[in-house]
Amino acid sequence: MKKRGLVWFKNDLRVHDNEALVTAQKECAELVLCYCIEESWFERHYLGFRRADINRFRFLEQSVLQLRDNLEAIGGHLLIGEKSAVETLPELVEEHGITDIYAEGEYAPYELELVEKVCSKLPEVDFHFFWGKTLYHIDDIPFEISKIPLTSKAYRIPVGRQTQVRDVFDVPKKLNGVKDVKSSSFPDCKVYGFTRKEYKDSRPLVDGGEDAALERLEYYTFKSELLTKYRWSRNGSKGMDYSSKLSPWLALGCISVREIYFKVKEYEEKIKKNQSTWWLVFELVWRDYFTFKGMRMGVPMFLTKGFKNRKVEWENDPKKFDRWCDGTTGIPFVDAHMRQLNATGFMSNRGRVNCSSYLVHDLKIDLTWGAAYFESKLIDYDVSSNWMNWHMQAFEIWYTNPVHQSNKYKAQDFIREWVPELSKLDDVEVLIPWEFEAKKYVKPIEVYPKWSRAINLIKKIAEPKK
């Protein structure tokens, strides 16, 4: 009996370096290609916001439609399910006589539970799962998941010495698509409770999809050679060129992490090898580490006490939390980043560190509230990276002073861009407007004594030199 396969796309929205797609094409006489939207992604969190908001919806739509175009270019057609894989896949199995399903393997509790539900509904179908999430393959690293080290260095050094990055898979030249199957349109935003105005007003920082991802990689490396100075620009917040901006596409698998790695290696050979190229690869490895460590820790990663079972007396003032979410805390560096997040679905690494530190250490609000809000808004939301970073900020690393950081990283123009109430202030006033009674800007929730030294250093900038 010839196999009739179904490729179930999830967070691997690409045709390059896609082992599930390549294997299905080799093993099956005919293929059905499918992507399933889960209605639950857009449900309301108990704190009031959606689990995934409109910018994430828009970026997902762009990415899925780009996948559809790229599959059609090689003879395939993409069917898009509206409600859940639990409903869509059994229907397609019955309609098309599917014998085998091919998909990328999952690792987080919610996604694993979904896969388990699908498998239990289709006991007669053979499932084939392939690991494609990380730079280093899960089968190649020198650790069992249950023994992943608790520090990144203890993970990174042995892995770097003992593990090789596997080669990428080529794009299939031609797909054996089932005849008479036509691609679906992407469901209207109203299906998931969004209004047309919300949709029209949404502005993800970058366009979704595989083509945009590969174009960005080429631009950041060989076209602009911005990679050469990445080590020294990566702590910026303003503009597009201070960092690679590849994380949104990585989050949905529009680009393969191995594709990025080998592009950097080619750049090192042809252009320059320096601290910047090392640092970008280091961050890919760090992403791996959070994935594997998150797998080891499991559900406690999502809990208030975290996997270390730390007890913290949170105040959890909902009014303060709302001001943090809206970018109206009265602290310009925090507010500018939060407003950028709300408008574009993106925030720099420097912004994430400061906004999370301010929420948990100054406002004393439960880290899970902040992590859930970031999950709702970030177009580069990655379950392990997001929740592990919030865990680290709350329990494992030092406090970050947002007043000092705004001065250290010269954030004046970035603040003026996102907090227009401060656009006319000078370089000193814009960092500490409460010291100058800026009438158009909201007063801070609180100015903490521990900020005094940073405030005084900023004031000295304005003092005439003797």
How would you explain this protein's 3D organization?
This protein folds into three domains: 1-132, HUPs (Rossmann fold); 133-168 and 209-297, Serine Threonine Protein Phosphatase 5, Tetratricopeptide repeat (Alpha Horseshoe), CATH 1.25.40.80; 318-461, DNA Cyclobutane Dipyrimidine Photolyase, subunit A, domain 3 (Orthogonal Bundle), CATH 1.10.579.10. Helix 3 packs parallel to helix 4 (109-121), helix 7 runs parallel beside helix 10 and helix 13 (332-344) crosses helix 18. It is mostly helical and 466 residues long. The protein has helices at residues 19-27, 54-72, 85-96, 109-121, 152-162, 196-201, 210-223, 230-233, 247-252, 257-270, 275-297, 318-326, 332-344, 349-362, 367-377, 383-395, 402-408, 412-418, 452-462, and strands at residues 4-9, 30-36, 78-81, 100-104, 126-130. It is built from 19 helices and five strands. A five-stranded parallel β-sheet has the order 3-2-1-4-5. Helix content is 46%, strand content 6%. It is globular. The mean pLDDT is 95.
